[in-house]
């Protein structure tokens, strides 16, 4: 899968809103799942141009991709392209530290045991919070 296809997949999972909203964890978010941080200057109740939020998504995606590469290096993961895509989307959704809590998944990936990794992905609070997305990514990991 190309990075462009992965971006489109993430966009579908995240959905799009041109105004600030609260995500499933009650955190302020905008665009395609951009978690609003202190440095952001978004205003409640204001609709933002899609082009501006697309550019923000591209920046967030590139950061997520770079963090996935770093995650693989730090955890000694030499995994398939498919597994990298799953990790990228997981990092995009829950952050580097969130994915770092998947100790059993990481161990399985170190051994290139993709099916075991996929099972471990579902043994999580993340899978309970976003079951459809977790199942889809788990299925993708199992085929890696």
Helix/strand layout:
Elements: H1 3-14, E1 17-22, E2 28-31, E3 34-35, H2 50-74, H3 81-100, H4 103-110, H5 114-122, H6 125-129, H7 131-142
Overview of the molecule:
This protein is mostly helical and 144 residues long. Helix content is 63%, strand content 8%. It is built from seven helices and three strands; from the N terminus they run H-E-E-E-H-H-H-H-H-H. The chain has helices at 3-14, 50-74, 81-100, 103-110, 114-122, 125-129, 131-142, and strands at residues 17-22, 28-31, 34-35. A hairpin with a 2-residue loop joins strand 2 and strand 3. Helix 1 crosses helix 3 (81-100), helix 2 crosses helix 3 and helix 5 (114-122) packs antiparallel against helix 7. The longest helix is centred in the middle third of the chain and has 25 residues, at 50-74. The protein is elongated. The model has no long low-confidence stretch (mean pLDDT 96).
């Amino acid at each position: 899968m190309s990075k462009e296809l992965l971006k489109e997949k993430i966009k579908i999972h995240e959905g799009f809103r041109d105004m600030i909203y609260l995500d499933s964890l009650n955190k302020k978010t905008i665009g395609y799942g951009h978690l609003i941080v202190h440095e952001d200057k978004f205003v409640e109740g204001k609709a933002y141009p899609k082009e501006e939020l697309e550019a923000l998504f591209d920046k967030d995606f590139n950061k997520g991709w770079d963090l996935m590469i770093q995650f693989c290096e730090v955890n000694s993961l030499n995994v398939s392209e498919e597994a990298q895509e799953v990790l990228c989307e997981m990092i995009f959704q829950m952050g580097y530290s969130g994915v770092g809590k998947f100790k059993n998944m990481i161990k399985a990936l170190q051994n290139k045991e993709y099916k075991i990794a996929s099972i471990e992905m579902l043994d999580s609070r993340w899978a309970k919070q976003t079951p459809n997305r977790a199942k889809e990514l788990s299925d993708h990991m199992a085929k890696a």
